[in-house]
Amino acid sequence: MRRFFVENISDYAILKGDEFEHFKKVLRGKIGDKIICICGDGKEYLCEVDTIESSFAKARVLEVENSDKDSKVKITVFMGIPKGDKMEFLIEKLSELGVSSIIPFESSFTIAKPKNKQERYRKIAIEACKQCGRTTPLNVLECLSFKDMLKLIKNYDVVYFAYEQADGGTFNDAKSYKNIAVIVGAEGGFSEEESKLIVEAGAKTVSLGKRILRCETAPLYAVSVINYLTNN
Ligand code: SAH
């Protein structure tokens, strides 16, 4: 059944904007159609469309179900701003893998500049959310400076720092934690000084193997391993 993301749901869900256009123009939706609506509250609402106007449609809630598709372990990925469209790729893929938030950051070797693309990122996250069945879209936060990123490390149960020069650190203790962060560098990685500061701030270095992964491969690898170890 088709899924739609709406702002909030009470007895009714209202499809507006892009979701309405998609329902009406692309899917040629009609009164009486059954759809699933989500609004980011961990529930799935089975609804029946009973009103279609020129700019919105109204769907009456028939049934509410708690979803089992959202992650039980909260995973945040701190990501050095990658070049080009790689952030968009990561939003889609990390959504599928159940990541809660991506926090981009600048460091001395990041080449790409922070992009003012929050609206586009939100759209990609909502599309990915609908496609993969989660009920809450991944959140992409504003870009942080390296210093501000370091300050956030203490907010997590554990922070894994993916460092290609790590001497064999693993994710083996991941199953003990519920609020996990991963730090991955951009194309240029980290300076030695930065890597020291990350460890001093309390992160745990981990290796992702002997080969050097691209910055868009590394978080997918890290999160997949965490998901496996935590049955997430
Ligand atoms: N500075 C490096 C590579 C950067 S790869 C160079 O140019 O040689 C981008 C990021 O992916 C790294 O900062 C790191 O966070 C992660 N990464 C890539 N391969 C890794 C590995 N084998 N182990 C741990 N982290 C890795």
Description of the structure:
The protein has 232 residues and is an alpha/beta fold. It folds into 2 domains: 3-66, Ribosomal Protein L25, Chain P (Beta Barrel); 74-230, 3-Layer(aba) Sandwich (Alpha/beta knot). Helix content is 28%, strand content 26%. It contains 6 helices and 11 strands. Helix 2 (86-96) runs parallel beside helix 3 (118-132). The model has no long low-confidence stretch (mean pLDDT 95). Residues 162-164, 166, 184-185, 188-190, 207-209, 211-213, 215, 218 line the site of S-adenosyl-L-homocysteine.
Query: What would you report as the Rg, rounded to the nearest angstrom?
Result: 20 Å
What fraction of residues sit in β-strands? 25-35%
CATH topology term of the largest domain? Alpha/beta knot
CATH architectural name of the largest domain:
3-Layer(aba) Sandwich
Average pLDDT reading: 95
Write the layout of secondary structure elements.
Blueprint (H helix, E strand, L loop, with lengths): L2 E3 L6 E4 L1 H10 L7 E5 L4 E10 L4 E10 L7 E7 L5 H11 L4 E5 L12 H15 L6 E2 L5 H7 L5 E5 L16 E6 L7 H9 L3 E3 L11 H13 L2
Parallel strand pairs: 1-3, 6-7, 6-10, 7-8, 9-10, 9-11
Antiparallel strand pairs: 2-5, 3-4, 4-5
Helix pairs in contact: 2-3
The structure holds S-adenosyl-L-homocysteine.
Give keywords.
binds S-adenosyl-L-homocysteine, 6 helices, 2 domains, 232 residues, alpha/beta, elongated, six-stranded parallel beta sheet, Alpha/beta knot
Short account of what is shown:
The chain has 232 residues and is α/β, with parallel strands linked by helices. It is built from six helices and eleven strands. It has a six-stranded parallel beta sheet.
